[in-house]
Amino acid sequence: MTIPAKERLLNAASKLFYQNGVHATSVEDILDEALVARQSLYLHFQSKDGLVAEFLKLRDQRWRESLHAFVKAHAGNPRQAILALFDFLQTWFSEPGFHGCAFINIAAEFSDPNHHFRLLAGEHKQHVLRYIKQLCHAAQLANPETQACRIALLMEGAIATELVTPDSDAAAQARQLAAMLLDTITLP
Questions:
Q1: Which of 42, 44, 102, 155 could form a disulfide with 6 if both were Cys (CB 3.0 to 4.6 A apart)?
Q2: From CA 144, how far away is CA 4, in angstroms rounded?
Q3: CATH 1.10.10.60 fits 1-45, yes or no
């Protein structure tokens, strides 16, 4: 079965944008990787920017689905679900081709805080934070909104640390800090 041109373009762009960044990836690189004609890109995405936006939406969806499935499979109770966030990070960090968070990387490439890609990156981070808030509420933590922000900050720090210093054990260290935080939080 032949993979449709739109899907090949999105797969190629996803690989190259994540691996090399948006600015370093040319339209020609994407077309060569996808083995499609230039007109296919413009037919399906109108421009490279349209393809970047679709990449970010797809990355958000896939990453959050993976996170949710991992937590569900590895947590027996709400507290374990919060700690499983860091186990997920550890698994992700050990994957071949780990290049950090696509959304942090996009934010670094586009300095205008109102740029469409930066806004999409911010939406992703808000989706993740909402999920962490759900976990904190399920664990019946005191001040769950505040605790969720702290857990999210630990996650972001682990991701950035692992990108800059691979094999840093950042996920495990962040998990230990999260466990200490959970141990100090009193129930509402």
A1: 44
A2: 45
A3: yes
